[in-house]
């Protein structure tokens, strides 16, 4: 699709048309009023030209020269492609520009922004000036503007989480879920701020940065959800060789001697991507720990596993399948409720990120058991930031909302109404039950341990290696993961 056609499609979107100045205007691309639309509400543009959001797509690919001059009129703007001369980068000139633009003394906030840059990157702002003075000053002004106009609390928001505190599964640069209320709006503001700031860091990138943006996008997608072996391989006795797997991955992700100061916009783009990955790591690790002792999961009698469990579900009638649930879990399901249960299990199965057209008996059975038991309907599990208590914390509520929307949105659209953290809740719960059915819970546990360690290695590699070398290493690592996955799939199918 050429850029002219993309421009027409962008202009045709109802949510974009609500902006009187249009999508290629300063008001839309930099104003606070439209931050949700340009970052969150137009998910169909994610991945076009390897972009993460609509604002990134427009600013990097769709603006005419005249439009760019209107959106980024000052040479201090990150997005104005004219480099600042030596006189313009002097501290006095920068202070004069910010004071005139925002009618306030900029010195206190400038000091705070420079401290943030040191905390986020590990390097002093003056070191970035030595690398590329013009870019460093533009980024400084961009973050200053961002804190004044868009989101003032960046300091705490962009700090690194730990396994004990500060993480949220909803720290992300995309927001496909629609929920409402005061706390929900606050959560949307956080996600839109992350997305907007991340997009801004690409505004001065050129073709030479294609690999950087593409690799970071692939890493983000790779760690969107954790994967597990096919049920066939597990039933054949496959067990995760944790030490061997980690040794192989570590060869692709060695720690370096430490990062040199690079260009500030690139370093912050990487920092924001790694933050998102880290939040997901800690949030999912906490979820795994919770599920291991979750007494809302029904106890299972032995399934007496045989090949029939791997037959396609279409070979069994509903009575047989629901009878198995009752016999093995003790949970009785009225026939009048079968369709509702089936729809719930279909949504859960579709969250697996597996593109299989067929569903085996054991997979359908496990998906039904995932929602079995009365206590799951009242169970609460927090995924939001602390203090966001007015948003429901019941996974069941979001699952039922998705099921109710199936006739209107279809399966894919229905899943998009579920917050990421609750999608991961249902997916992990399902996979745990699958592995318990196969008396292989240690496989589920080991896969999660390996996934967590793998994310840690990726983050550590980037934080101890210069960007150019890190991107090359990450590219080789991604290629290895693709080839290894294809190889393992071929082995499973061959046997």
Quick tags:
495 residues, mainly alpha, 24 helices, elongated
Which class do the helix and strand fractions yield?
Answer: mainly alpha
Percentage of residues in strands: under 5%
- Give the helix level as a range of percent: 55-70%
> How many E-type strands?
0
Question: What is the arithmetic mean of pLDDT?
Answer: 88
Shape: elongated
Distance between the termini: 42 Å
Give the number of helices.
Answer: 24
- Spans of at least 5 consecutive residues whose pLDDT stays below 50 are none
Helix/strand order:
HHHHHHHHHHHHHHHHHHHHHHHH
Main sheet characteristics: none
- Rounded radius of gyration (Å): 25 Å
* Oligomer state of the chains in this structure: single chain
In words, what does this structure look like?
The mean pLDDT is 88. The longest helix is centred in the middle third of the chain and has 29 residues, at 264-292. Helix 18 packs across helix 19. The chain has helices at 3-12, 14-17, 26-30, 35-39, 54-62, 65-71, 91-102, 107-121, 125-131, 133-149, 154-157, 182-200, 210-222, 231-235, 242-252, 264-292, 318-329, 338-349, 361-370, 395-404, 406-415, 420-437, 441-463, 467-494. By secondary structure, the chain is mainly α. The protein is elongated, with a radius of gyration of 25 Å. It has 24 helices and no strands.
Summarize this structure briefly.
The chain has helices spanning 3-12, 14-17, 26-30, 35-39, 54-62, 65-71, 91-102, 107-121, 125-131, 133-149, 154-157, 182-200, 210-222, 231-235, 242-252, 264-292, 318-329, 338-349, 361-370, 395-404, 406-415, 420-437, 441-463, 467-494. With 495 residues, it is an all-alpha fold. The chain starts with a helix and ends with a helix.
């Amino acid at each position: 699709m050429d850029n002219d056609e993309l421009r027409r499609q962008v202009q045709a979107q109802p949510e974009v048309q609500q902006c009187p100045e249009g999508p290629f205007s300063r008001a839309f691309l930099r104003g606070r009023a439209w931050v949700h639309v340009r970052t969150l509400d137009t998910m169909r543009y994610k991945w076009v030209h390897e972009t993460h959001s609509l604002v990134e797509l427009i600013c990097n690919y769709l603006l005419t020269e005249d439009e760019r001059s209107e959106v980024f009129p000052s040479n201090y703007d990150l997005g104005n492609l004219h480099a600042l001369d030596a006189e313009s980068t002097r501290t006095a000139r920068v202070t004069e520009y910010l004071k005139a633009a925002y009618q306030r003394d900029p010195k206190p906030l400038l000091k705070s922004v420079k401290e943030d840059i040191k905390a986020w990157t590990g390097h002093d702002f003056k070191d970035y000036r030595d690398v590329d003075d013009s870019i460093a000053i533009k980024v400084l002004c961009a973050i200053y503007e961002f804190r004044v106009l868009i989101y003032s609390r960046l300091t705490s928001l962009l700090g690194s989480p730990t396994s004990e505190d500060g993480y949220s599964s909803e720290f992300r640069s995309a927001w496909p879920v629609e929920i409402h209320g005061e706390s929900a709006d606050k959560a949307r503001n956080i996600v839109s701020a992350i997305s907007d700031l991340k997009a801004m860091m690409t505004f001065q990138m050129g073709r030479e940065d294609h690999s950087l943006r593409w690799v970071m996008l692939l890493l983000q997608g790779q760690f969107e959800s954790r994967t597990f072996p096919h049920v066939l391989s597990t039933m054949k006795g496959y067990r995760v060789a944790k030490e061997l797997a980690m040794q192989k991955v570590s060869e692709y992700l060695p720690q370096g001697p430490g990062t040199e100061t690079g260009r500030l916009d690139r370093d912050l783009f990487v920092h924001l991507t790694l933050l998102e990955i880290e939040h997901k790591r800690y949030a999912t690790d906490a979820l795994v720990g919770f599920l291991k002792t979750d007494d809302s999961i029904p106890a299972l009698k032995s399934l007496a596993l045989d090949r029939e469990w791997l037959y396609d579900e279409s070979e069994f009638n509903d009575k047989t399948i629901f009878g198995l649930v009752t016999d093995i879990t003790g949970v009785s399901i009225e026939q009048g409720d079968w369709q509702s249960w089936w729809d719930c299990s279909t949504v859960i199965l579709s969250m697996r990120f597996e593109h299989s057209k067929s569903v085996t008996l054991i997979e359908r059975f496990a998906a039904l058991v995932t929602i079995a038991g009365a206590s799951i309907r009242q169970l609460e599990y927090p995924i939001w930031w602390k203090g966001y208590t007015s948003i429901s914390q019941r996974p069941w509520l979001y699952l039922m909302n998705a099921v109710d929307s199936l006739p209107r949105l279809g399966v894919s659209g229905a899943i998009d109404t579920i917050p990421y953290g609750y999608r991961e809740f249902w997916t992990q719960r399902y996979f745990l039950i699958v592995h318990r059915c196969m008396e292989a819970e240690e496989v589920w546990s080991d896969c999660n341990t390996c996934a967590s360690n793998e994310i840690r290695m990726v983050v550590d590699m980037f934080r101890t290696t210069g960007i150019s070398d890190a991107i090359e290493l990450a590219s080789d690592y991604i290629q290895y993961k693709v080839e290894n996955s294809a190889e393992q799939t071929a082995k499973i199918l061959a046997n």
